Amino acid sequence: MQYASTRDSGLSVSAAQAVAQGIAADGGLFLPREIPRFVPGELEELTRLDYIGRAERILSKFFTPEGGWPAAEIRACAEGAYARSFDCPEVAPLKTLNETTSVLELYHGPTCAFKDMALQLLPRLLTASARKCMDEQEIVILVATSGDTGKAALEGFRDVPGTKIIVFYPAEGVSPVQKAQMATQEGANVRVVAVRGNFDDAQTGVKRIFGSAAIQARLAARGQAFSSANSINWGRLAPQIVYYVSAWCDLRKAEKIGPAEPIHFVVPTGNFGNILAGYYAKAMGLPVAKLICASNKNRILTDFLATGVYDRNRAFYTTSSPSMDILISSNLERLLYLASGQNSALVSGWMRELSATGRYEVPAPLLRALQKSFACGSCNEAQTAHAIRGAWQTYGYLSDTHTAVALHVLEEYRRETGDPTKTVVVSTASPYKFAASVLSAVTGRAAPANEFEALGLLEQTTGAPCPPPLRGLDQKPVRFTDICGIDEMPGFLEV
Fold first, then answer.
1. Which domain holds residue 289?
2. DSSP category for residue 144
3. Is 433 annotated as catalytic?
């Protein structure tokens, strides 16, 4: 399995090189030159496996023995990621709301967010990749986060030999719980820095560092090299394909769907990595009818999928679903490459337009092709709260703010289309990570200003247990208080 760049289809690197480098030298994103397919009967076989077995089988299609990845190595990576770090044996359990709607809970890992599904595995893939192609160089992981990626990456790479990790987050763009999780992070090889601005500013700063030949040369002189734990790294995206397949298999195993019955997935997304993994699962042959893109008030992806125009020249909103407060959706570049027939010249042109003018527009035939796979919708703040309250009152299900966006968008989609297709809502975080917003929605009253007081009241009010990793978080010693401007970010590269 060889990998190309979205901006140079002639480039060909190994899976190990793609993961170790994180991003191509031309600024493009690595992706496999071909998408492997499930063979007849394989999905039925996968229904009989547990999550680790499914992960091993699917990842082995991208990290192949022929590419230097023995099956035993992939198995060890999957077991190391999922055997002990999650609080339930299913790893990614499905919860039934009604006959047509299930919720895929991806927050049972150590940081209570869906990023654990990939970031418990990525350090294992990355260190294995480094052994194969990086000549003993120390890997410096750079991360821009809108909240959950930062903590999950820090936890995944904490004290991993041969690595250092630096996380940048928007100073006022994460929840108090997310901030506390990062600021109190343990580990000798970690550093956390707040950035004045929003997530797009932090992401732009990281991309500039990656693109600086001078900084790269300084690192090389010290025996170091950059990589990324953001979803621009293929090693982040590939593990996410697994849970789409696993959700379908669990529905099939429970005899809730037929042998080849297609289902919808509704995905709250801002950077487009989560939903893109679902697109890869569909391209591999998973029976997926529609991938429904759920946006919050920052509805740039919904507008793009509806009109074909991507325009970040708009107001930026800080919302109760901060992981979607994004106007530059990096992984959309991978989708454009696939949908354009792997036309890297077109993709490069659109990315240059985006950089120069803040917008681009795709041709109508390409948009129509995208709309065959994707539907879309958005949700404002009042609708988010209403969805949380409705799920609790109707089903006794406690939803976080991001999952609530998806629940609302699904309701609107069904109202507009009458489509009865069975649907999985992809739930991305524990409600306790956004306790004040969830408590206010459930009770209809203002929550305490102190997020950690709200966390305790939410547990008292609903009886839903607070995850142990979030208990007492406000009592842990704060290690990181640095704050900088976007131009000052390179000065924090020493861990």
1. 94-111+235-475
2. E
3. no
